[in-house]
Write a structure and sequence with these properties.
Elements: H1 2-16, H2 18-22, E1 25-27, E2 33-35, E3 43-47, E4 53-56, E5 59-61, E6 68-72, E7 80-86, E8 92-98, E9 106-109, H3 121-139, E10 158-161, E11 166-169, E12 172-173, E13 180-183, E14 189-191, E15 196-205, E16 209-217, E17 220-227, E18 229-230, E19 237-238, E20 243-246, E21 257-264, E22 267-269
The protein binds zinc ion.
């Protein structure tokens, strides 16, 4: 009966505590492991031998001096992937990775047509420049492995939006929401969820308002939107827990909240899978 108890307990943990799952370690071989949840939107932290070469679906993956590496999967990532690990001696191993398909929060809005307004050409131009700046900031490379820290929540407040949610207006899909939203009054402290280097702070982007990007190393970054103030600037090194910004409602925002997004290269991953569970 001990086995049954164990199973029930694990199921309970699975249900109530995704944060514990995030720490789950999958041992793929004697020397290769992956930490994280095998699901769409996941950031998986790998360990191999420092001398190994790692490939995800035949694309080379950066590997740190201590053998750490990181991979990530977007909201609608395919479910089947292959991780290849080659040793210096030429030994090659292929590990199939199967992700779990996620169910996102989908809202269907009917009867009301989403107001289509002709976008102001000035604003379109500005938004394009903003996007270009964000892409350039995310391209900057650091060999740091701060992504391996246990991430903490960047703000206190009610969770008001989750990764992956999407609205359909009369059957037409809107853009999915990639952030984890924390609703709190303007001026509420935003702290660094992990160590990193600030890559960008722009106070007034068209859509995202006050926008801050922190590079946690090897392609992993956090982006914070709608800030009322940034307390750091590009190039600053920040420590986990350090005050970096203040919550706001700048840009196209419907009320004060922090919108926290995470990327691995061009894949948008779910920050919630990396922080302890919270209501
Ligand atoms: Zn949001």
């Amino acid at each position: 009966m001990i086995t049954m108890k164990k199973i029930t307990f694990s199921l309970l943990l699975l249900f109530v505590c995704p944060a514990l799952l995030a720490q789950q370690i999958h041992q793929l071989s004697d020397t290769v492991s992956l930490k994280g949840t095998f699901t769409q939107g996941a950031l998986l932290i790998g360990q191999a031998k420092a001398s190994d070469s790692v490939f995800l679906n035949d694309k080379p993956v950066a590997i740190a001096d201590d053998g750490l590496f990181v991979i990530g999967f977007g909201r609608d990532a395919e479910l089947n992937h292959q991780l290849h690990v080659k040793s210096v001696s030429g030994e090659a191993n292929t590990f199939p990775l199967t992700l779990e398909k996620r169910k996102y929060n989908i809202q269907r809005v009917t009867g009301i047509s989403k107001k289509i307004t002709q976008p102001n050409p000035e604003n379109v131009k500005r938004a394009r420049l903003d996007a270009k700046q964000v892409r350039a900031a995310r391209k900057l490379w650091s060999d740091d492995t701060h992504f391996n820290q246990q991430f903490i929540w960047p703000a206190k407040g009610r969770m008001s939006g989750v990764y992956g949610s999407q609205r359909f207006y009369n059957g037409k899909p809107g853009r999915p929401h990639y952030g984890l939203d924390v609703a709190a009054p303007t001026g509420t402290a935003v702290i660094a969820p992990a160590d990193g280097v600030v890559r960008l702070f722009v106070p007034d982007m068209f859509y995202s308002g006050g926008t801050l990007i922190i590079d946690h190393g090897m392609g992993v970054s956090s982006t914070f939107l709608h800030l009322s103030a940034g307390l750091v600037k590009a190039g600053d090194v920040v420590k986990q827990g350090q005050l970096i910004a203040k919550i706001g409602s700048t840009g196209r925002s419907t009320g004060p909240h922090l919108d926290w997004r995470m990327n691995w290269l061009n894949q948008r991953v779910d920050p919630q899978l990396l922080v302890p569970a919270r209501k």
